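Example 350.
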Amino acid sequence: MNELDALVDSARAGFAQAATPADLENTKAQFLGKSGRITELMKGMAALSVDEKKSRGAAINQAKQAIEAALTARRQALADAELEVQLKAEALDVTLPGRQRGQGGLHPVSLTLERIEAIFGSMGFEVAEGPEIESDWFNFTALNTPEDHPARSMHDTFYVEGGSDKAPNLLRTHTSPMQIRHAVQHVKRHRAAIDNGTGMPEIRVIAPGRTYRVDSDATHSPMFHQCEGLWIGENVSFKDLKYVFTDFCRTFFESEDLVLRFRPSFFPFTEPSAEIDIQFQSGPLAGRWLEVAGSGQVHPNVVRNMGLDPERYIGFAFGMGPDRLTMLRYGVNDLRLFFDGDIRFLSQFR
Ligand code: PHE
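Predicted structure in complex with phenylalanine:
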């Protein structure tokens, strides 16, 4: 084997040994680089005659081309191998289960509202919704709340721009304005029947929604929820309130083992008025009286503001706190948890 064939062989062997593209480029320099073996052989021709240069040059060139071909082949082989590794690493495992979208769920208070609507719905109550920005008339005056009532003070009520000094706009402090709004619409629809003595169908409605007061601690949030209830007819009494509300609480808490107490109280829009307390007879909350709603017989002035004759129409109203009901149902002791938006807390109710 001549010297040039041996050189080509050793280049092939060197390329074959190079395990990475970088190795390969280093090996290439030994043969084809500026001071590589081929360049040296070319330089070595300086002393030869013209004829010798021709044949020697052609032979060296042939060797050079063979080395370049080997280099190109090895480059391709390394690139193929690299691609192979990459494809393997990135291969899709089609047997893996699909990636699922995170599962959402309703907020615990929304779950409570849905529950309240379903239970009262089954007792023939409609659901009404109304504005959170209210006028002084619906929030206070129509509800028989005198000008100097402390509930109107700046401490409790968020006033907002718009309206007038006499009737400023405010964020409703309770859902009771819906008593008036809903009843007025109902009465308007049935005006003729009311006036000709036939009488109107009873008003039976609940009105859930957001309410606002300047108040914030573990059991009060400046935004909280209420659900109003109103039942007006010609023969609706406190005993109906007691029956309806007891039934509601027992269904809501899934406990027959629960008693109610009506504790005398005061609200401008009901007379007489009562706080409704409940007491579980068993379970972790057993024995404690827990306040869940304000209630009472709708005041004659309020019935009048609904467009009805209080001598003929009578009924009751109540306002309960769905946030508190949610806390009791799930054993949560800090109201703020509901409104912090922490997914770790909220996802427990999914
Ligand atoms: N609106 C009252 C409150 O926010 C609750 C209530 C509603 C009381 C209806 C009586 C009748 O405290």
